[in-house]
Design a protein that fits this description.
Blueprint (H helix, E strand, L loop, with lengths): L1 H12 L20 E3 L4 E2 L1 H4 L4 E7 L4 H4 L11 H10 L2 E7 L11 H11 L5 E3 L4 H6 L3 E2 L1 E5 L5 E5 L15 H11 L13 E2 L6
Helix pairs in contact: 4-7
């Protein structure tokens, strides 16, 4: 019940990131250099593979990422998703845009510690001043954006419908997108509601 209330509250709290990227249009800032947890600088174009790139806005603390006693969380899927993406010719990257927590739980040092503890196999990048999150209209952690090999937006939303306590079956949205881009299968749903904690932007 507590977590169900939390789900409802976050759906109202996550209103920032109002930009709406157009499906089939090229995403912005693909050459912008972002710092990775290994201190290298990487761009989205560096990480894109032959069939495209999966961009997951994530963080170190949100229970939608980490999970708790009421919710499994999505982080425990990250490495499997990364492996599946590799098999389908896709890159996968995590991006931390929680600029308001950059001196605390979402600092680069904390990102390094968290990635090591969680065993992340994929790059985990710092989005300074939430620039990418603002440009993409990212609202939550996690919030997923998938582009094809031409950097055109193909999908945005949730990893799956695990958050929906009333679901009759699990809908693996992101796996369906990977199959679409890797195997040319039909994609029936390219825009799903994101669920998670609001991205912690600096207030003006």
């Amino acid at each position: 019940l507590i977590f169900s209330t939390f789900l409802v509250l976050t759906s109202f709290l996550c209103l920032e990131g109002s930009n709406e990227l157009k499906f089939g249009k090229k995403i912005p800032l693909t050459d912008k250099q972002l710092k990775n947890i290994d201190n290298s600088l990487l761009s989205l174009n560096d990480l894109k593979k032959e069939n495209g790139l999966i961009i997951v806005f994530s963080c170190n603390t949100c229970p939608f990422v980490l999970g708790n006693e009421d919710f499994a969380g999505w982080e425990n899927q990250y490495n499997d998703l990364y492996q599946k993406a590799e098999e389908k010719g896709l890159g996968l990257v995590l991006i931390n845009s929680n600029e308001a927590k950059r001196d605390g739980d979402d600092s680069l040092d904390e990102m390094k510690l968290h990635a090591r503890k969680a065993g992340y196999k994929m790059p985990y990048l710092v989005d300074e001043n939430s620039e990418l999150a603002d440009a993409y209209g990212a609202k939550t952690t996690p919030h997923v954006f998938v582009v094809n090999n031409e950097n055109e937006l193909v999908y945005r939303g949730s990893i799956d419908n695990l958050w929906d306590t009333k679901r009759t079956e699990l809908e693996p949205y992101l796996y369906n997108v990977m199959n679409h881009l890797g195997d040319k299968t039909e994609l029936k749903n390219n825009d799903t509601p994101p669920r998670g904690c609001s991205i912690k932007r600096m207030k003006n």
